[in-house]
Amino acid sequence: MQLLMMGPPGAGKGTQAAILVKKFSIPQISTGDMFRAAVREGTELGKQAKACMDAGRLVPDEVTVGIVRERLAKEDCANGFILDGFPRTVEQADALTKILDELNLKLTRVLNIHVPAEDLIERAVGRRICKNCGATYHVKFHPPKGDTCDECGGELYQRADDNEATMKKRLDVYEAQTRPLVEYYKRAGIYAEIDGRQPIAKVTADLEGVLTSLH
Length: 215
Ligand code: AP5
Ligand code: MG
Ligand code: ZN
Prior knowledge:
Helix content is 49%, strand content 15%.
């Protein structure tokens, strides 16, 4: 099953992908997570990505496509994967089609989590992430039981781009560069939209409903 999880910043892509990873035992491929890992490691890629991320801009297509190409060629992707936050431009979508052609694969479904812009800033500003295992919380919508991660006891942190000003820029970038992909994948006939304003478990149930209707 080759899935693509789409949606604006803060829509719940990462939250839902993490749940589906456990259910289907296929890897989540989040370009945002890959860039943040590179920033932590202090690589050249990390330096370039950090400048873009902190400004709320996209990392250049050629860089992003390169890391996804390498990642999809790994063995753990042979039985499927969940792309989270890639593609984000028409150029990236065209590149993905080519990469999948080379691997003899096709996207099974494009799942777009729809959340109106007015909800998204609150979601990002209240997000907390575990430094150790990456589990994602929200101070209001999905609070941890204490000050540390429920899963592993790790320290929780806030992403550098999860402030109101950067989030506004990220939403503008989404409208200008990523929203056109909705029409792109509608034309391909594999598109499904899910209402992301519902509780997390209900969003998961709707996603699963779309996926079981495939068989
Ligand atoms: P990336 O890390 O992909 O960020 P994003 O797309 O902005 O999306 P987020 O991770 O912010 O949101 P999400 O949808 O995963 O939401 P989550 O589940 O965490 O990208 C960051 C940057 O990297 C980009 O700006 C760019 O610079 C660069 N980049 C990445 N990919 C790129 C690409 N392809 N090309 C170029 N550049 C790229 O949920 C958010 C919060 O809401 C959490 O607190 C969560 O607990 C809460 N929540 C989740 N679901 C619900 C719900 N149903 N109800 C209430 N709260 C909920
Ligand atoms: Mg995410
Ligand atoms: Zn943790």
